[in-house]
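Weekly structure sync - notes
Attendees: PM, LS, DV (DV joined late)
Agenda: review two folding runs queued last week.

Item 1: First target. Sequence and C-alpha coordinates pasted below for the record.
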Amino acid sequence: MTQIRICHTTVYHYRSAVSLSAHRLMLRPRESRELQLMSHTLKVSPEATIAWAHDVSGNAVATASFTGKTEVLRIESNLELNLTANPWPIFNISTSALNYPFFYSNDDRADLGALAIQQYLDPMGRLQKWARSFVQGAAPDTLELLKAISLGVAESLQYEVRESEGTQTPIESLDRGKGSCRDFAILFAEAVRSLDIGARIVSGYLYDPQSTATGSSGSGSTHAWAEVYVPGAGWINFDPTNRSIGGFNLVPVAVARDITLLMPVSGSYVGAANAFEGMEVEVLVT
Protein backbone atom coordinates (compact mmCIF):
# COMPACT_ATOMS: atom_id res chain seq x y z
CA MET A 1 0.00 0.00 0.00
CA THR A 2 1.23 3.49 -0.88
CA GLN A 3 0.08 6.46 1.18
CA ILE A 4 -0.01 9.69 -0.82
CA ARG A 5 -0.69 13.35 -0.06
CA ILE A 6 -1.51 15.73 -2.90
CA CYS A 7 -1.80 19.51 -2.72
CA HIS A 8 -3.11 21.04 -5.96
CA THR A 9 -3.23 24.85 -5.97
CA THR A 10 -4.56 27.05 -8.78
CA VAL A 11 -4.37 30.85 -8.57
CA TYR A 12 -5.86 33.34 -11.05
CA HIS A 13 -4.75 36.98 -11.06
CA TYR A 14 -6.77 39.90 -12.48
CA ARG A 15 -5.59 43.45 -13.19
CA SER A 16 -8.84 44.88 -11.81
CA ALA A 17 -11.68 43.57 -9.67
CA VAL A 18 -13.97 41.17 -11.56
CA SER A 19 -17.17 39.25 -10.82
CA LEU A 20 -16.71 35.48 -10.99
CA SER A 21 -19.22 33.16 -12.61
CA ALA A 22 -19.84 29.74 -11.06
CA HIS A 23 -16.69 27.63 -11.45
CA ARG A 24 -16.68 23.89 -12.13
CA LEU A 25 -14.05 21.96 -10.15
CA MET A 26 -12.97 18.39 -10.89
CA LEU A 27 -10.43 17.72 -8.13
CA ARG A 28 -11.76 14.81 -6.07
CA PRO A 29 -10.28 11.40 -7.04
CA ARG A 30 -12.43 8.48 -8.16
CA GLU A 31 -12.53 5.98 -5.29
CA SER A 32 -12.23 2.28 -6.09
CA ARG A 33 -11.00 -1.01 -4.69
CA GLU A 34 -7.45 0.14 -5.48
CA LEU A 35 -7.82 3.75 -4.31
CA GLN A 36 -9.13 4.66 -0.88
CA LEU A 37 -9.64 8.37 -0.29
CA MET A 38 -8.87 9.11 3.37
CA SER A 39 -9.59 12.85 3.33
CA HIS A 40 -10.23 15.72 0.94
CA THR A 41 -10.48 19.42 1.73
CA LEU A 42 -11.29 22.15 -0.76
CA LYS A 43 -10.38 25.76 0.06
CA VAL A 44 -11.62 28.57 -2.18
CA SER A 45 -10.86 32.28 -1.84
CA PRO A 46 -12.80 34.54 -2.08
CA GLU A 47 -15.37 32.64 -0.08
CA ALA A 48 -17.73 30.55 -2.19
CA THR A 49 -20.75 28.31 -1.79
CA ILE A 50 -19.78 24.76 -2.81
CA ALA A 51 -22.31 22.30 -4.23
CA TRP A 52 -21.31 18.71 -5.06
CA ALA A 53 -22.79 16.45 -7.73
CA HIS A 54 -21.81 13.54 -9.99
CA ASP A 55 -21.73 13.98 -13.75
CA VAL A 56 -22.87 11.47 -16.38
CA SER A 57 -19.57 9.57 -16.05
CA GLY A 58 -19.78 9.35 -12.26
CA ASN A 59 -17.10 11.98 -11.65
CA ALA A 60 -17.39 14.10 -8.50
CA VAL A 61 -17.89 17.71 -9.58
CA ALA A 62 -17.95 20.73 -7.25
CA THR A 63 -19.61 23.97 -8.33
CA ALA A 64 -18.27 27.08 -6.59
CA SER A 65 -20.62 30.09 -6.61
CA PHE A 66 -19.32 33.56 -5.71
CA THR A 67 -20.67 36.95 -4.67
CA GLY A 68 -18.93 40.30 -4.90
CA LYS A 69 -15.74 41.10 -6.82
CA THR A 70 -12.11 40.08 -6.48
CA GLU A 71 -8.67 40.52 -8.03
CA VAL A 72 -7.44 37.04 -7.05
CA LEU A 73 -9.08 33.60 -7.20
CA ARG A 74 -7.32 30.85 -5.26
CA ILE A 75 -8.41 27.21 -5.26
CA GLU A 76 -6.56 24.68 -3.12
CA SER A 77 -7.35 20.96 -3.02
CA ASN A 78 -5.69 18.77 -0.37
CA LEU A 79 -5.92 14.97 -0.53
CA GLU A 80 -4.81 12.00 1.49
CA LEU A 81 -5.27 8.58 -0.10
CA ASN A 82 -4.05 5.00 -0.18
CA LEU A 83 -3.07 3.26 -3.41
CA THR A 84 -3.11 -0.55 -3.43
CA ALA A 85 -2.82 -1.29 -7.16
CA ASN A 86 -0.46 -4.10 -8.20
CA PRO A 87 2.54 -2.84 -10.19
CA TRP A 88 2.46 -6.14 -12.14
CA PRO A 89 -1.28 -6.73 -12.69
CA ILE A 90 -2.77 -9.87 -14.22
CA PHE A 91 -5.87 -9.25 -16.32
CA ASN A 92 -8.54 -11.95 -16.38
CA ILE A 93 -9.82 -11.37 -19.88
CA SER A 94 -12.88 -13.33 -20.97
CA THR A 95 -12.17 -16.20 -23.34
CA SER A 96 -14.32 -14.53 -25.98
CA ALA A 97 -12.08 -11.44 -25.94
CA LEU A 98 -8.64 -13.04 -25.69
CA ASN A 99 -8.03 -12.46 -29.38
CA TYR A 100 -8.85 -9.60 -31.73
CA PRO A 101 -11.33 -9.02 -33.22
CA PHE A 102 -13.78 -9.69 -30.42
CA PHE A 103 -17.36 -8.56 -29.95
CA TYR A 104 -19.00 -6.82 -27.01
CA SER A 105 -22.32 -8.06 -25.70
CA ASN A 106 -25.33 -6.01 -26.76
CA ASP A 107 -25.53 -4.51 -23.26
CA ASP A 108 -21.83 -3.56 -23.17
CA ARG A 109 -22.02 -2.08 -26.65
CA ALA A 110 -25.06 0.02 -25.72
CA ASP A 111 -23.46 1.28 -22.51
CA LEU A 112 -20.12 2.07 -24.16
CA GLY A 113 -21.91 4.19 -26.74
CA ALA A 114 -19.70 7.11 -27.80
CA LEU A 115 -16.70 5.61 -26.00
CA ALA A 116 -16.35 3.12 -28.86
CA ILE A 117 -16.72 5.74 -31.60
CA GLN A 118 -13.94 8.00 -32.93
CA GLN A 119 -14.38 11.56 -31.70
CA TYR A 120 -12.09 13.23 -34.25
CA LEU A 121 -12.55 13.32 -38.01
CA ASP A 122 -10.45 10.87 -39.99
CA PRO A 123 -11.86 11.32 -43.53
CA MET A 124 -8.98 9.56 -45.30
CA GLY A 125 -8.83 6.74 -42.77
CA ARG A 126 -5.21 7.56 -41.92
CA LEU A 127 -5.58 6.87 -38.21
CA GLN A 128 -7.41 3.59 -38.76
CA LYS A 129 -4.74 2.48 -41.24
CA TRP A 130 -2.06 3.39 -38.70
CA ALA A 131 -3.85 1.46 -35.94
CA ARG A 132 -4.38 -1.58 -38.16
CA SER A 133 -0.65 -1.72 -38.87
CA PHE A 134 -0.30 -3.17 -35.35
CA VAL A 135 -2.73 -6.03 -36.06
CA GLN A 136 -0.38 -8.90 -36.82
CA GLY A 137 -1.85 -12.19 -37.98
CA ALA A 138 -5.43 -13.39 -38.27
CA ALA A 139 -6.33 -13.32 -34.56
CA PRO A 140 -3.69 -11.49 -32.48
CA ASP A 141 -3.71 -11.55 -28.70
CA THR A 142 -5.92 -8.62 -27.60
CA LEU A 143 -3.75 -7.46 -24.71
CA GLU A 144 -0.57 -7.67 -26.79
CA LEU A 145 -2.27 -5.66 -29.55
CA LEU A 146 -3.23 -2.91 -27.10
CA LYS A 147 0.30 -2.88 -25.68
CA ALA A 148 1.71 -2.58 -29.20
CA ILE A 149 -0.51 0.41 -30.00
CA SER A 150 0.48 2.11 -26.74
CA LEU A 151 4.15 1.52 -27.51
CA GLY A 152 3.55 2.73 -31.07
CA VAL A 153 2.19 6.02 -29.73
CA ALA A 154 5.25 6.43 -27.50
CA GLU A 155 7.58 5.73 -30.42
CA SER A 156 5.71 8.04 -32.81
CA LEU A 157 5.60 11.09 -30.53
CA GLN A 158 8.28 13.03 -28.72
CA TYR A 159 7.04 14.33 -25.39
CA GLU A 160 6.77 18.09 -25.03
CA VAL A 161 5.45 20.35 -22.30
CA ARG A 162 2.64 22.32 -23.95
CA GLU A 163 1.03 24.92 -21.72
CA SER A 164 -1.59 26.05 -24.24
CA GLU A 165 -5.14 24.83 -23.70
CA GLY A 166 -6.77 22.21 -25.87
CA THR A 167 -5.40 19.15 -27.56
CA GLN A 168 -4.08 18.20 -30.96
CA THR A 169 -6.13 15.97 -33.20
CA PRO A 170 -4.66 12.48 -33.64
CA ILE A 171 -3.64 13.33 -37.22
CA GLU A 172 -1.92 16.52 -36.04
CA SER A 173 0.00 14.50 -33.44
CA LEU A 174 1.16 11.99 -36.06
CA ASP A 175 2.15 14.80 -38.44
CA ARG A 176 4.02 16.83 -35.78
CA GLY A 177 5.59 13.83 -34.08
CA LYS A 178 5.29 15.68 -30.78
CA GLY A 179 2.72 16.07 -28.04
CA SER A 180 1.89 16.43 -24.37
CA CYS A 181 0.50 13.62 -22.22
CA ARG A 182 -3.04 14.56 -23.24
CA ASP A 183 -2.08 14.25 -26.91
CA PHE A 184 -0.56 10.81 -26.27
CA ALA A 185 -3.78 9.74 -24.53
CA ILE A 186 -6.05 11.05 -27.29
CA LEU A 187 -4.02 9.39 -30.06
CA PHE A 188 -4.04 6.06 -28.23
CA ALA A 189 -7.76 6.15 -27.41
CA GLU A 190 -8.75 7.16 -30.93
CA ALA A 191 -6.55 4.46 -32.47
CA VAL A 192 -8.20 1.86 -30.24
CA ARG A 193 -11.67 3.18 -31.09
CA SER A 194 -10.88 2.93 -34.81
CA LEU A 195 -10.62 -0.82 -34.16
CA ASP A 196 -14.11 -0.84 -32.57
CA ILE A 197 -12.78 -1.12 -29.01
CA GLY A 198 -14.15 1.12 -26.25
CA ALA A 199 -11.79 3.62 -24.60
CA ARG A 200 -12.03 6.70 -22.40
CA ILE A 201 -9.66 9.48 -21.37
CA VAL A 202 -8.53 9.83 -17.76
CA SER A 203 -7.31 12.95 -16.01
CA GLY A 204 -5.57 12.80 -12.66
CA TYR A 205 -2.18 12.69 -11.01
CA LEU A 206 1.03 10.80 -11.69
CA TYR A 207 2.88 9.64 -8.56
CA ASP A 208 6.61 9.51 -9.32
CA PRO A 209 8.76 9.34 -6.16
CA GLN A 210 11.91 8.65 -8.20
CA SER A 211 11.25 11.63 -10.51
CA THR A 212 11.96 9.47 -13.57
CA ALA A 213 8.56 9.31 -15.30
CA THR A 214 7.91 11.32 -18.45
CA GLY A 215 5.57 14.23 -17.83
CA SER A 216 6.33 14.37 -14.12
CA SER A 217 7.59 17.39 -12.23
CA GLY A 218 9.27 16.49 -8.98
CA SER A 219 7.50 13.69 -7.12
CA GLY A 220 4.33 14.02 -9.20
CA SER A 221 2.11 16.13 -11.41
CA THR A 222 -1.22 16.33 -13.18
CA HIS A 223 -1.39 13.74 -15.94
CA ALA A 224 -3.59 12.25 -18.64
CA TRP A 225 -3.84 8.67 -19.84
CA ALA A 226 -6.48 6.27 -21.19
CA GLU A 227 -8.51 3.25 -20.15
CA VAL A 228 -9.67 0.48 -22.49
CA TYR A 229 -12.68 -1.73 -21.77
CA VAL A 230 -11.94 -5.43 -22.27
CA PRO A 231 -14.61 -7.99 -21.28
CA GLY A 232 -13.68 -9.88 -18.13
CA ALA A 233 -10.82 -7.57 -17.17
CA GLY A 234 -12.94 -4.41 -17.29
CA TRP A 235 -11.22 -1.04 -17.62
CA ILE A 236 -7.45 -1.38 -18.13
CA ASN A 237 -5.14 1.63 -17.67
CA PHE A 238 -2.73 2.45 -20.47
CA ASP A 239 -0.25 5.32 -20.08
CA PRO A 240 1.42 5.64 -23.49
CA THR A 241 3.46 8.63 -22.31
CA ASN A 242 5.34 6.29 -19.96
CA ARG A 243 4.86 3.04 -21.89
CA SER A 244 3.11 1.53 -18.89
CA ILE A 245 0.02 -0.55 -18.21
CA GLY A 246 -1.92 -0.71 -14.94
CA GLY A 247 -2.61 2.00 -12.39
CA PHE A 248 -0.09 1.43 -9.60
CA ASN A 249 1.26 5.03 -9.84
CA LEU A 250 -1.84 6.75 -11.24
CA VAL A 251 -4.48 8.68 -9.27
CA PRO A 252 -7.59 9.06 -11.47
CA VAL A 253 -9.73 12.13 -10.82
CA ALA A 254 -12.17 12.03 -13.75
CA VAL A 255 -12.97 10.05 -16.90
CA ALA A 256 -14.73 11.11 -20.10
CA ARG A 257 -14.90 10.41 -23.81
CA ASP A 258 -12.79 13.52 -24.54
CA ILE A 259 -10.12 15.51 -22.72
CA THR A 260 -12.08 18.76 -23.17
CA LEU A 261 -14.57 17.49 -20.57
CA LEU A 262 -11.89 16.99 -17.93
CA MET A 263 -10.65 20.47 -17.01
CA PRO A 264 -9.69 20.54 -13.29
CA VAL A 265 -10.93 24.14 -13.02
CA SER A 266 -13.22 25.89 -15.49
CA GLY A 267 -15.24 29.08 -15.31
CA SER A 268 -15.37 32.68 -16.46
CA TYR A 269 -15.50 36.22 -15.15
CA VAL A 270 -17.35 39.47 -15.85
CA GLY A 271 -15.06 42.46 -16.16
CA ALA A 272 -12.71 44.28 -18.49
CA ALA A 273 -11.63 42.32 -21.56
CA ASN A 274 -7.97 42.62 -20.52
CA ALA A 275 -8.58 42.01 -16.81
CA PHE A 276 -7.06 38.53 -16.81
CA GLU A 277 -3.39 38.83 -15.89
CA GLY A 278 -2.25 35.23 -15.51
CA MET A 279 -2.49 32.00 -13.55
CA GLU A 280 -0.26 29.74 -11.48
CA VAL A 281 -0.67 26.00 -10.92
CA GLU A 282 1.30 24.01 -8.36
CA VAL A 283 0.98 20.29 -7.65
CA LEU A 284 2.84 18.70 -4.73
CA VAL A 285 2.69 14.90 -4.40
CA THR A 286 4.35 13.27 -1.39
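Item 2: Second target, run right after the first with the same settings.
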Amino acid sequence: MRRVGLYRTRTLLRTLKYRYVHGHHVGGAFDLLSIDPSNVDHYLSPRFGPRSYVFDIKGGDWDETRPRPIEEYDMYRAFERHFTDGISWTQTEFYERITDEIDQGKTKWGCTSEDEFYEVCGEFDSLHDSIVEHGFLSMKELHDRGLDTTKPIHAHEVCVVIGRDGTLYSDEGRHRLFIAKVLDFDQIPARVLVRHTEWQRIRDQAAAKGSPPSEYTSHPDLKDIR
Protein backbone atom coordinates (compact mmCIF):
# COMPACT_ATOMS: atom_id res chain seq x y z
CA MET A 1 0.00 0.00 0.00
CA ARG A 2 2.99 2.30 0.58
CA ARG A 3 3.90 1.99 -3.11
CA VAL A 4 0.34 2.78 -4.12
CA GLY A 5 0.36 5.86 -1.89
CA LEU A 6 3.63 7.04 -3.42
CA TYR A 7 2.28 6.47 -6.92
CA ARG A 8 -0.90 8.43 -6.17
CA THR A 9 1.07 11.25 -4.57
CA ARG A 10 3.51 11.49 -7.49
CA THR A 11 0.63 11.53 -9.97
CA LEU A 12 -1.20 14.29 -8.09
CA LEU A 13 1.96 16.39 -7.69
CA ARG A 14 2.90 15.96 -11.37
CA THR A 15 -0.59 17.00 -12.45
CA LEU A 16 -0.60 20.04 -10.17
CA LYS A 17 2.84 21.06 -11.44
CA TYR A 18 1.71 20.92 -15.06
CA ARG A 19 -1.49 22.83 -14.25
CA TYR A 20 -0.26 25.59 -11.97
CA VAL A 21 3.44 25.94 -12.80
CA HIS A 22 3.35 25.36 -16.56
CA GLY A 23 -0.25 26.46 -17.15
CA HIS A 24 -1.34 23.33 -19.01
CA HIS A 25 -4.95 22.21 -19.23
CA VAL A 26 -4.40 18.64 -18.02
CA GLY A 27 -7.68 17.69 -16.35
CA GLY A 28 -7.95 15.62 -13.18
CA ALA A 29 -5.08 13.39 -12.11
CA PHE A 30 -7.15 10.23 -12.39
CA ASP A 31 -9.80 11.26 -14.92
CA LEU A 32 -10.95 8.55 -17.32
CA LEU A 33 -11.78 8.90 -20.98
CA SER A 34 -14.43 6.91 -22.77
CA ILE A 35 -12.73 5.45 -25.85
CA ASP A 36 -13.73 3.17 -28.69
CA PRO A 37 -11.32 0.20 -28.61
CA SER A 38 -11.58 -0.18 -32.38
CA ASN A 39 -9.93 3.24 -32.73
CA VAL A 40 -6.81 1.98 -30.95
CA ASP A 41 -4.98 -0.08 -33.56
CA HIS A 42 -1.35 0.37 -32.48
CA TYR A 43 0.54 -0.29 -29.27
CA LEU A 44 3.73 1.37 -28.06
CA SER A 45 6.96 -0.64 -27.95
CA PRO A 46 8.81 0.02 -25.78
CA ARG A 47 6.01 1.32 -23.63
CA PHE A 48 6.13 4.04 -20.98
CA GLY A 49 4.66 1.75 -18.29
CA PRO A 50 4.95 -0.22 -16.10
CA ARG A 51 8.04 1.54 -14.72
CA SER A 52 5.90 4.60 -14.14
CA TYR A 53 2.14 4.95 -14.14
CA VAL A 54 2.51 8.66 -13.41
CA PHE A 55 0.96 11.04 -15.93
CA ASP A 56 3.44 12.94 -18.09
CA ILE A 57 3.79 15.24 -21.11
CA LYS A 58 6.65 14.23 -23.40
CA GLY A 59 8.08 15.59 -26.64
CA GLY A 60 10.22 13.73 -29.13
CA ASP A 61 9.52 11.22 -31.86
CA TRP A 62 8.15 8.39 -29.68
CA ASP A 63 4.77 8.60 -31.42
CA GLU A 64 6.44 8.08 -34.79
CA THR A 65 9.08 5.43 -34.02
CA ARG A 66 7.54 3.24 -31.31
CA PRO A 67 4.00 2.32 -32.48
CA ARG A 68 3.43 -1.27 -33.64
CA PRO A 69 0.23 -2.69 -35.25
CA ILE A 70 -1.93 -4.52 -32.72
CA GLU A 71 -3.09 -6.95 -35.40
CA GLU A 72 0.50 -8.19 -35.75
CA TYR A 73 1.04 -8.66 -32.00
CA ASP A 74 1.13 -12.36 -31.08
CA MET A 75 -0.57 -11.61 -27.76
CA TYR A 76 -3.56 -10.03 -29.50
CA ARG A 77 -3.72 -12.86 -32.04
CA ALA A 78 -3.71 -15.34 -29.15
CA PHE A 79 -6.64 -13.53 -27.53
CA GLU A 80 -8.53 -13.65 -30.82
CA ARG A 81 -7.80 -17.34 -31.41
CA HIS A 82 -8.57 -18.36 -27.84
CA PHE A 83 -11.69 -16.32 -27.14
CA THR A 84 -13.17 -16.33 -30.65
CA ASP A 85 -12.09 -19.68 -32.06
CA GLY A 86 -11.72 -21.66 -28.84
CA ILE A 87 -8.06 -22.51 -29.45
CA SER A 88 -6.13 -23.59 -26.34
CA TRP A 89 -3.64 -21.08 -24.98
CA THR A 90 -0.92 -23.70 -25.37
CA GLN A 91 -1.49 -23.76 -29.13
CA THR A 92 -0.85 -20.06 -29.64
CA GLU A 93 2.37 -18.37 -30.75
CA PHE A 94 2.11 -16.06 -27.75
CA TYR A 95 2.14 -18.96 -25.29
CA GLU A 96 5.04 -20.63 -27.08
CA ARG A 97 7.08 -17.41 -27.14
CA ILE A 98 6.56 -16.65 -23.46
CA THR A 99 7.28 -20.20 -22.29
CA ASP A 100 10.38 -20.34 -24.51
CA GLU A 101 11.69 -17.17 -22.87
CA ILE A 102 10.90 -18.60 -19.43
CA ASP A 103 12.85 -21.73 -20.35
CA GLN A 104 15.78 -19.44 -21.20
CA GLY A 105 15.77 -18.18 -17.63
CA LYS A 106 13.76 -14.98 -18.14
CA THR A 107 10.93 -13.87 -15.87
CA LYS A 108 7.82 -13.14 -17.96
CA TRP A 109 4.48 -11.90 -16.63
CA GLY A 110 6.00 -12.44 -13.18
CA CYS A 111 6.46 -16.13 -13.97
CA THR A 112 9.52 -18.33 -13.79
CA SER A 113 7.86 -21.58 -14.91
CA GLU A 114 5.40 -22.69 -17.58
CA ASP A 115 2.93 -23.80 -14.88
CA GLU A 116 2.91 -20.30 -13.44
CA PHE A 117 2.29 -18.76 -16.84
CA TYR A 118 -0.53 -21.20 -17.53
CA GLU A 119 -2.15 -19.88 -14.35
CA VAL A 120 -1.79 -16.35 -15.75
CA CYS A 121 -3.65 -17.48 -18.86
CA GLY A 122 -6.36 -18.76 -16.54
CA GLU A 123 -6.55 -15.25 -15.10
CA PHE A 124 -7.10 -13.95 -18.64
CA ASP A 125 -10.03 -16.39 -18.89
CA SER A 126 -11.47 -15.18 -15.58
CA LEU A 127 -11.14 -11.54 -16.64
CA HIS A 128 -12.84 -12.28 -19.97
CA ASP A 129 -15.72 -14.07 -18.22
CA SER A 130 -16.14 -11.22 -15.72
CA ILE A 131 -16.28 -8.65 -18.51
CA VAL A 132 -18.84 -10.73 -20.40
CA GLU A 133 -20.97 -11.01 -17.25
CA HIS A 134 -20.64 -7.51 -15.79
CA GLY A 135 -19.52 -5.33 -18.69
CA PHE A 136 -16.29 -3.38 -18.97
CA LEU A 137 -16.02 -1.53 -15.67
CA SER A 138 -13.46 0.91 -14.31
CA MET A 139 -11.43 -0.17 -11.31
CA LYS A 140 -13.52 2.11 -9.07
CA GLU A 141 -16.71 0.51 -10.35
CA LEU A 142 -15.24 -2.93 -9.68
CA HIS A 143 -14.37 -1.86 -6.13
CA ASP A 144 -17.76 -0.27 -5.54
CA ARG A 145 -19.53 -3.46 -6.63
CA GLY A 146 -17.23 -5.68 -4.61
CA LEU A 147 -16.10 -7.50 -7.75
CA ASP A 148 -12.37 -6.79 -7.36
CA THR A 149 -11.04 -5.27 -4.17
CA THR A 150 -7.54 -6.73 -4.43
CA LYS A 151 -6.04 -4.19 -6.85
CA PRO A 152 -5.37 -0.47 -6.31
CA ILE A 153 -8.17 1.57 -7.84
CA HIS A 154 -6.07 3.78 -10.10
CA ALA A 155 -3.18 1.53 -11.09
CA HIS A 156 -4.84 -1.10 -13.28
CA GLU A 157 -6.94 0.80 -15.80
CA VAL A 158 -6.42 0.55 -19.52
CA CYS A 159 -3.81 3.23 -20.17
CA VAL A 160 -3.37 5.00 -23.49
CA VAL A 161 -0.84 7.54 -24.71
CA ILE A 162 -1.72 10.28 -27.18
CA GLY A 163 0.50 11.27 -30.09
CA ARG A 164 1.01 14.72 -31.56
CA ASP A 165 -1.98 14.41 -33.91
CA GLY A 166 -4.33 12.98 -31.28
CA THR A 167 -3.83 9.32 -32.18
CA LEU A 168 -4.42 6.94 -29.27
CA TYR A 169 -1.88 4.19 -28.66
CA SER A 170 -2.12 1.29 -26.24
CA ASP A 171 0.41 1.32 -23.42
CA GLU A 172 -0.61 -0.40 -20.17
CA GLY A 173 -3.59 -2.70 -19.54
CA ARG A 174 -3.23 -4.32 -22.97
CA HIS A 175 -4.88 -7.56 -21.94
CA ARG A 176 -8.02 -5.65 -20.92
CA LEU A 177 -7.99 -3.60 -24.11
CA PHE A 178 -7.51 -6.71 -26.26
CA ILE A 179 -10.45 -8.45 -24.59
CA ALA A 180 -12.58 -5.36 -25.23
CA LYS A 181 -11.56 -5.43 -28.90
CA VAL A 182 -12.28 -9.16 -29.22
CA LEU A 183 -15.69 -8.68 -27.58
CA ASP A 184 -16.38 -5.70 -29.87
CA PHE A 185 -17.13 -3.17 -27.12
CA ASP A 186 -17.83 0.28 -28.55
CA GLN A 187 -16.79 2.23 -25.42
CA ILE A 188 -14.51 1.47 -22.47
CA PRO A 189 -12.92 3.62 -19.73
CA ALA A 190 -9.23 4.45 -20.15
CA ARG A 191 -6.69 6.70 -18.49
CA VAL A 192 -4.21 8.91 -20.33
CA LEU A 193 -0.68 8.03 -19.27
CA VAL A 194 1.29 10.36 -21.58
CA ARG A 195 0.41 13.17 -23.95
CA HIS A 196 2.77 14.41 -26.64
CA THR A 197 3.73 18.04 -26.12
CA GLU A 198 2.18 18.99 -29.46
CA TRP A 199 -1.14 17.38 -28.53
CA GLN A 200 -1.03 19.13 -25.16
CA ARG A 201 -0.58 22.40 -27.03
CA ILE A 202 -3.78 21.67 -28.97
CA ARG A 203 -5.60 20.96 -25.68
CA ASP A 204 -4.30 24.20 -24.16
CA GLN A 205 -5.41 26.25 -27.17
CA ALA A 206 -8.82 24.57 -27.18
CA ALA A 207 -9.25 25.30 -23.47
CA ALA A 208 -8.31 28.96 -24.02
CA LYS A 209 -10.94 29.25 -26.77
CA GLY A 210 -13.55 27.18 -24.92
CA SER A 211 -13.99 24.71 -27.75
CA PRO A 212 -11.89 22.16 -29.66
CA PRO A 213 -10.76 22.68 -33.27
CA SER A 214 -13.32 21.54 -35.83
CA GLU A 215 -11.23 18.53 -36.87
CA TYR A 216 -11.17 17.29 -33.26
CA THR A 217 -14.74 17.90 -32.12
CA SER A 218 -15.32 14.19 -31.43
CA HIS A 219 -11.94 13.43 -29.87
CA PRO A 220 -12.38 11.73 -26.49
CA ASP A 221 -9.51 13.72 -24.93
CA LEU A 222 -11.24 17.03 -25.69
CA LYS A 223 -14.69 16.28 -24.34
CA ASP A 224 -13.86 18.09 -21.10
CA ILE A 225 -13.37 21.30 -23.09
CA ARG A 226 -16.80 21.49 -24.73
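Discussion on item 2: The longest helix spans residues 114-134.
Action: LS to circulate a short write-up before next sync.
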